[in-house]
Every structure is written in C-alpha cells, then in structure tokens.
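Schema walkthrough. Field components (list of strings):
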Amino acid sequence: MIEFRSVTKRFGDGTVAIEDFSLVVPSRRTTVLVGSSGSGKTTLLRMINRMIDPTSGGIEIDGEDTSTLEPVKLRRRIGYVMQNSGLLPHLKVIDNIATVPILNGVKRALAREQALELLDTVGLDRSLAERYPNQLSGGQQQRVGVARGLAADPNILLMDEPFGAVDPIVRDELQRELIRLQRELGKTVVFVTHDIDEAFLLGDQVVILETGGRVAQVGSPSEIMQSPANEFVASFIGTERGKRALSIRRTARGRVLVDGAGRTAGVLVDEPATTGHDVDSAANSGADSVAQVTVAQDLGADATTGAVLDAAAGPSNEPSGLLAAEPIVR
Amino acid sequence: MNWVLENLPLIGERTLQHLATAVPPVVISFLLAVPIGWLANRFRRVRGTVLTVCGLLYSIPSLPLFVALPALIGTGLTDPSGVIIALTLYGIALMVRVTADGLSSVDLHVTQAANAVGFSEWSRFWRVDLPLAGPVLLSGIRVVSVSTVSLTTVGAVLGVKSLGLFFTDGIQRNIAAEIFTGIVGTVLIALVLDLLLVLIGRVLMPWLPSVSQHATRTTVRSRVAAA
Amino acid sequence: MNFIVDAIRWILDPMHFPGPNGIATRISEHLLISFFVVLIASGIAIPLGYVIGHTGRGKSIAVLATGGIRALPTLGLLSIIALSIGIGLTAPFIALVVLAIPSILAGAYSGFEAVDRRTVDAARAVGMTEAQIIRRVELPLGLPLLIGGLRAASLQVIATATLADYLGGGGLGHYIFAGQQTQDYPQMLGGSLLVIFLAVISEVSFGILQRLVVPAGVRSPSVTSRRTETARTDLGRVEVGRTESSETITAAGSPQTKGTT
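Field assembly_structure (string):
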C-alpha cells in the first residue's frame, strides 16, 4: 500500500505543482492517475520513488515513510517504466534488463539468465536479447522497458505514460499484455496517462486530476462513469456529448445505441451477453469492437439512465458509456 | 600607453597590412567553398572524399604551411601571397564542410515541397536551400573570419607584415606594451569583422530573429570541431 | 618542386638523424612537449568539464572561454608569457596548456551534455547512484566527444609547439628558425614537413580512436539515414535545428582554434 499524506510540491520558480494531495494506493491493484498536462500526475508518480521530494507532507510505502529511506535503494526495489522506454542505448537488451539486479549485486550470469526469462514474460523472443535498443521497434522497446521494470521483482511498478509514444495498434496490444501480466503477477501498479480510455481499461482505481494535483474524483471506472462527481469529471470522461453519451435509436431489427457524435456504438440487448464476464474472449474480440451492449443489471428498473456495460468489460464490468435520459426515437 | 601614442602611424600601417592579408582569404574561401560544398552535398559519393580532404587540409599546421607554400607557388618567404593562399585553403576546408552540413540540414519536407511546387534544381538552390542554410553559412564564415585574423599574425615569424610583427619585435626589444598592442589590435580587428558579418547577415536574412543566431553559431562551433 | 625534393633529401640524410640537434631528438622533444601539455591540460579540463556537464552549471562561462580563445593570437600569448617569465621551455609550455584547455573542456562537457537527459533520468529512476550514472552512462556515451576534444587539442598543441623554439623551447620548430637564420630553405621546409607529418598522424589516429569508442548500440543502426546521423555523432557534431536543444549541445564546441603555427 502506498499512501500520500497531504503532499505539496512547490518548484524553485514558485509554481505549485501539487497542493495538499492525499491518496491511498491499494496493494496488488492498478491505480491510474489521469489528467491533462499540468495536472501534476507525473510529479506525483516520481515522488513515490523519490525522483522528486515533496515540499511538505509525506509518502508511506507499507507504513514506512519514504523520506527515511535512501533514494537509490528505494528506487532499486521499485520498477519504473517510462514513455521513451529509457533504455540505455549502449547496452544490449539483455544487459538493459539485467541492469538493476546487477546493481543489486546479483551475479552477472544469473542476472542475464533471469533477464532471458523476463523476455518470455513480456512476450518477446529470446533472439532479441543480443540486440541494441535502437534495433527494436517502439513497441518492442516498451516491452523491454517493462521487463527491466520487473527485473528486480519489485512489489511496486511505476509506469509513466509507457504507451504514449507508440501507434494505436501497438498500444492496444501492449495494454492487453499489461492486463494479462498484472493478472499473473499482481503488482501494485501506479500508472500515469492523459488518456481516459486507457485509464478506464487498465485501472482498478482511477484518480482523475485537475490542475495542481487536485483530485476531481477517485473510484473504480464504473463508479466514476455511473456518478461523475462534477461537471469537470463528466466532460473529461465524455459522458456529456462524447463517445460515452449514448442514446437509443430504434431500427428495424431492434434497438441500437448511438454516441454523441452520431456513430452507432452497439446493439442493445436486454439480457447480459453470455460472454460478458469472459475476459479472454473479450480481450480477443478487442475492446473497441463492441458488438453487444447490455443494460447494467445493478441499475434496476431505471434502465434508461443507467450506465451501459459492453461485452468486452473486464472483471470489474466496466461500463462503456452512459445512456442519455431521453431515448431518441425516430 | 606612451608606446601606442608614439607609434600611431606604424600601428595604422600594420593594421592595414593585417587587413590586406586577412580579408581576401575570408571572401575568396566563401566564394569557392559554397559551390564545392554544394557538390559535396549533392553527390553523396564524393562527399566523403571531399570532406576527408578538407579535414586533412585543415589539420596542417599553419607555420609549416606558410613555409611550404612559397616552394609550391614560387614566391618569397616574406611575400604575403603565401600566407593569403594558406589562409584561403583553411577557409575553404572549413567552409566546404559547413556548407555541406548546412545544406543537408535543410528540412527534407521543405525541399520536397519546393520540388513539388515546381522549383528547378537551380532555382531551388538560390531561393530555398541557400537562404535556409544561410544562418549556418553565416556562422561558418564568422569562425573563418575570427581564426583567419588570428592566424595572420603567425606569418610575422617569417617576416610577413601584419600586427604580428609587434609580437616578434616586442619580444626582441623587450617592450610589453608593443606585444599588448598587437594582441588588442588583432582581437579588435576580429571583433569588428565579426560585427560586420553579423550586420551583413541581418541585411541578407531579415527574417531571422536575432536570438537564434546565437543558437546556430554554437552549433557551428561543433561542426568546426570536426573539421 | 626542387625545394620539396631538397627538403625530403634533407630529412632522409642519415647525418641529420642522430645527435642533440638530430631529427630523432627534435621529434621526441616535440612529441614529449605535446604529450605533457595535453596531459596537464586534460588533468585540469576533464574533471572541470565533467562537473559542468553533469551539473549543467557554469556552461555559459565555458562557452565564452572556448569562443574567446579563438580570437586570441597564439603568438601574442606566447610572447607576452615569455616576456614576463623569460625565454625557455616554460613559457611556451604554459601558453600551450592554456590553449589546449578549452578544446578538452568543451569535449568533456559536451560529451556529457550530448547524452539524452531522458536516458540519464531513466538511469536514476532505476536506482543508479550519481557515480554510477557518470561511470556507466555518461562516460561511455560521451567518450567520443571527449576524444574529439583531445583530438582537437592535440592537433593544436603539435602545431603550436612549433613556435616553442622561437622562444628557445626546442622541438621541430628549431629547423624552421635555424634554417631561416642561415637561409637554409631545405632545412626549414624539411622541419615543416615533419611537423605536418606529426599533425596528420595525430589527426588520423585520433580519428580512428574516436570511431572505436562509439558504443556499439549507438553505432549499429542499419538504416542508411541513421548511419549518417551516427557519423555526425562520431565527429562530435549534432544536427542543427532539429534538435530542440541545439543550443545546449554546442557539441564538441571544441573551438578548434586553428592549430596556430
């Protein structure tokens, strides 16, 4: 568990990046910090491994105040993955992955052996081990970055927009890999992104940030979508007029859902789809290709204003949008 | 100070001799190097060879070159033409590299766009590539100018007339003021010529913000390092 | 052309090789002076450059110094030092060290600076200590530029050391000044050719060394366009304009103050 306690960060030039920020990050879950640039999300992330120290307030990891810990030692037991992979260009892939274990005093041969296993873990072929980072594609580099983050077998994995610089198809792939990995490994992941879709897809807990690290809302994706705390959250997640503002339209064959831009988002079925809880098939079908939409059961009779679950929903039955109050019938 | 006041006519004479030796290499090397640099950039095959030759040329120490050139061109050791030619060679060696780099640093999108709207290669060079490489060329020629002015003084040990004679004469007659006059005079000439080049740059490239010139200049220094 | 033939004949004359004024002695004098000058200048400039490069502080002073040195006439500097401390080897030695420092300083700090800050940040984030960052990341990645600085400095020192004998310091310059007094042009030219030879040897060997120290991962990309880019890095040069930090890079801002002499 990571706990932020009234953390404030002022930079030398007087700008306040974070003001009185408090948050509990549960263990073995993925917490996503999401916000626009200037929301201080990366600053918050970098405070966890003391790349940045707070001006006031403190951070505890499993009850231990990080300010009492030696930064270098702390960083070696926390995995860190960043946008541009941050690999060392003059080291081979395998040596990049083995960096931290070797720093920790693990024998080189053993560290390299473990690094090979990590290549398997992140879904890369072992033949890439002897390549240099600039001989890999962007997606492969990010996977190596994840492998390096995992190399010291840390409990905590910090991810700073790790998929921000890869193209959408590769990003989808990497996101699915991360979901799979997290299911296997159960790390405490803190993930920073500006992409709300990514946040809802990956997060067990999503923290929506406004400027200066003000928390607009904390909750599971469902909670946030079902009851946005305020106008800011509603517009940020797009339930007002974006692709999560769904309305019902009748067609010859039944009812379909149409998003704020007028695009058909899916078909409304009254019964929950049978595959609704089957994560693997959902992942295979691709989260975006929503074919069936089911009215959330837990919303009871008031189906017209409830959140809508899609067939690809993860274990949390994450909603795909909000149904507008008045169905548009033509 | 007394020494300066007593020798004003001599200082004037030496300054003029210095300028007569230092200015032609700067101008001539620029005029010759730009076409060579263009060729080196245009024809990738010759690029490596041309740049290597320039690098080696630039690495020849100046005093030995001042001694050797008269043997090749048949002039006397104290004749300024040997120094002028040697300094021109250095200028060319440096400017060819700067030109080739400057031209190759022109954004590929821009040149493609220029081709697409129908520039011929000739007109593209004059109206797109050259102006865009202008800041780099300017910073290159500034480096050439400063080092040429400084190198001109070396000829003095062979008896070639310039402000450098104040160094050789000052040390023989043990007059520190004379040496200082030579140093200050040389630095002043370098500064004035540099300012002049900056002004010419402003006139020829009015679209440039004056701040960015500093940035390009530092980049060119790096190019110079490789020369 | 006859002069050149005479000069080469002069160099190859076995009579001129041994003895206190022989070519062997003069070459070793020249090389020893140059070596110790570069050594001492490195001892001062490399640590200083690393501090500037690693912390990013004091850069503007370094840039100013490296730029300013170019305008300073070497012969003038040499003369003024000789006048204040007397004729001999010491004056040219001090002057040469002063002249060599900026190139090495620039090579050292630009080598550090040219290392992508994100790479350094990543190294810190995974738990490297500052010393490990310097040793394992900044040093290997910045080495080509440092060697570039040493290359420029060595060339300049070998060239300028020719003037040492003008102030009684020995070295290959002796042939030029002795020949000048006795109107012995072949000897002057022979001495000159020897200096040129040393300079070219230094240039070529440092060039090779510089290529060798480029870390494999930085050198290897297969695409042609990348190869030219690497070549630029080899030489300590960086793309203008495209790099956001074109100003910070100043790459081997190595003011190759043209080897005076």
